Amino acid sequence: MAILVTGGAGYIGSVTTEFLRSRGEQVVVLDNLSRGHRAAVAPEVPFYEGEIGNTELVTSIAREHDIDACIHFAAFAYVGESVSQPALYYENNLEQGIRLLGALVAAGVRRVVFSSTCATYGEPQRIPIDEGHPQLPTNPYGWSKLFVERILADYDRAYDLKFVALRYFNASGATPERGEHHEPETHLIPLVLKAAQREIERVTVFGSDYATTDGTCVRDYIHVTDLAAAHALSLDYLRSGNSSTAINLGNGQGYSVLEVIDAARAVTGREIATEMQGRRSGDPSHLVADSARARTVLGWQPQQPDLAAIIGSAWEWHSKRPQGYG
Ligand code: UDP
Question: Is pTM beyond 0.85 here?
Answer without folding.
Answer: yes
